[in-house]
Amino acid sequence: MNVEEAFWSMVRDPELLRRYISSDGFSLDEVCIKSRRLGFPCIPSIDDDFKTRLIAVSITFLTVLTMELESMGTPSSIDGIAALLGDISSDLAIYGAPRDVIDEAHELMRRIAIMARLVKTPLDT
């Protein structure tokens, strides 16, 4: 399963997000800071509406992925990451996510894109 498929599975079943976080050894408190600051649950309930699940899983998943890539230290290729970042960006806008959520997601996506070598930085030249 690539990262895009994993993400959408987590939106459908948020319990998978909790398992992903614990399997990576990250603390829920550490991972959930951004979601809580933005007013969304870190791990939504399966009973939450799709919009809430999409927004909450997006911020939490992007946070964990950023932390994961930072802990690896070296740039990494991730199957499906470009498609996923595009999906999250457009779907947050389509579903009317608050501006601060979109801004936070874009900042996390920018960091992920750099670490996943999807974009070049001035240091790469």
Keywords for this entry:
125 residues, 7 helices, mainly alpha
Description:
The protein is mainly alpha-helical. It is about 65% helix and about 0% strand. It has helices at about 5-10, 15-25, 30, 35, 50-70, 80-95, 100-115. Helix 1 (about 5-10) packs antiparallel against helix 5 (about 50-70), helix 5 (about 50-70) packs parallel to helix 7 (about 100-115) and helix 6 (about 80-95) packs antiparallel against helix 7 (about 100-115). The longest helix has 23 residues, at about 50-70. About 30% of the residues are buried. The model has no long low-confidence stretch (mean pLDDT about 90).
Question: Summary?
Answer:
By secondary structure, this protein is an all-alpha fold. The chain has helices at residues 3-12, 15-23, 28-31, 33-37, 50-72, 81-94, 99-115. 66% of the residues lie in helices and 0% in strands.
Secondary structure class reads mainly alpha
What's the SSE pattern? HHHHHHH
- Strands, count: 0
Strand content: under 5%
**Distance between the first and last residues' Cα:** 33 Å
Low-confidence stretches: none
* Main beta-sheet annotation: none
Q: What level of helicity do the residues show? A: 55-70%
Q: Which geometry do the CA atoms define?
A: globular
Rg from Cα: 14 Å
Number of helices: 7
Query: Mean pLDDT, as a whole number?
Result: 88
